[in-house]
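Quick one: structure for this chain?
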Amino acid sequence: MQEIRSRLLRRIVVPLWLTLLFAGASFGQNEKAAVFTVKYISSDSVYIDAGRNAGIQDGMLISVVNVQAAPGQADGARFRGEQHVAELKVLSVADSSAVCEIVSSTSDLQVGQVAFLTPDSVQERRETQSVAEAADYPIVVGFTYGDPLDDEVRQTEERKIIQESPVGRIRGRLGFDYGNTQESGGFSSRQMGMIINADMTYLGGTYWNFTGYWRGNLTSHSSGTTTGTTPTTLTDLINRTYHLSLTYDNPYSPIRIGVGRLFLPWAPSLSTIDGAYFARKVTRNVTLGAFGGSTPDPTSWSYNPDQRIAGTFVNYEKGDFNSARYFFTAGLAATTLQWRVARQFAFFENTFSWKRYFSLFNSLQADEARTSPLPNGGSNPTGVSQSYTSLRIQPVSRISFGLNHNYFRNLPTFDPRLISTGLLDQYLFQGFSGDVRVELPKRIAVYTSLGKSKVSTDKQGSLNQGYGISFGRIWRTGLSADAHYSKFDSAFGKGQYESFSIIKNVNENFRLQVMTGRQKFISSLSSNTNSNFVNMSADWNLGPRYFFETNYGWYSGTTMQYQQWTSVFGYRFGGFRK
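Got it. Here's what it folds into:
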């Protein structure tokens, strides 16, 4: 038996070991360099001194650090700890050079700066090389899993590289706005303001991010009015729905921070807040946090510009979007008006999903008994005040089905002028409803929602219905369009609206958008029973650094009629488009 074992070792194991040894030696000799230098810089392209000879392929990502080296002397991973100044993407490859585009940058690039493949691109090159070399060996041995110690070292090194100096993007737009509003009766007003578009991630090589959009008036002057105040237009209301925030999101730190106009990431069903949140992960799956601020979003169910909110929460999260995922949040919050408590409530959010095929979502708020100081007044006992449940099924990528249930105990305080914009659709259907969305060829999508609404005072239920169609590209014109119709009857009011929008990108530097709609709304909450509107905007990029934007709005309603125009001139950086 011992003799048989010796023969097997000599005839099978030893040759296999020698084959793997020589294969490993050959692979080590063929491992190509992953560190290069910037060779040449044009207006919008960067050339590096490596190409097919270094295994560079189209689409690979390359990081540039603020260190210079002579050609051929960038020879080590010691440069990875230096400050990252740009991220490049390979567009085309020659034998000994490659042309790249600038994906993001924090400063101007210079010839001679060190560049190297990102970890993902290095792995991609190794896999390609392994496939090419596999045919050279008669025996291919595969393992179901790697060496645990080796995996641990690799993950630690990759984490160190990412954590030392993350590569982000710095781009945005800053502009000054001048506008005029003409109301019926000869009243007029002038406004001066600012707009900020920001898409800035990993500021200064840290995990701070500044992203979002803000547009507001800095000064205003009215003439011909008795109050001297500027009216709030439909455009002004839409501007209040945007977010602009400074956030800290480090995957290797338990702390998360957000400041600005934002929503709470762990409970997005709550109102947008002008304020801040602070959260700390106490275990791998559990996060504790607190938040507070005002509620400026006019699309919120309980909107009031003078309202404030504060609360605490706990979140449990397990799984990921590539498989099964469970997300649960519970918290306590209170709102105040003129520093008097308006609501004290508990809120809950549950989400369970399995890949893209199935998701179940529920949000619920339960109030403590109170006498409300809200405009609609009244007393409310302890109980559920809001609840929304949605079941989504997507058997194939182009078709999705939904079953929803919506319940609200209290009358809403959102601004009804926004109904025809589609921003309030989640509130218009009460009770059970179902929806279907189908993605057709040629970038066409059709969608519909149907439901039956009935409250205790109704003799019979009413049918809520909505239909829409969108075109991602109309023939070869470059036009995108969307048309929507909705008819609803709920506890707070009934009505219908039609809207149509169209977008035209004439070229990379010019964009035109038109949105028009009309609505009928009958409710005790508002006398604005009938209105029509048209909004138009045009956006030009003037060279590589400046832009000009103009907007025109016409609104005709029962309580307000006006025309409004604005113009914006500003500076853009980082290649940012609207």
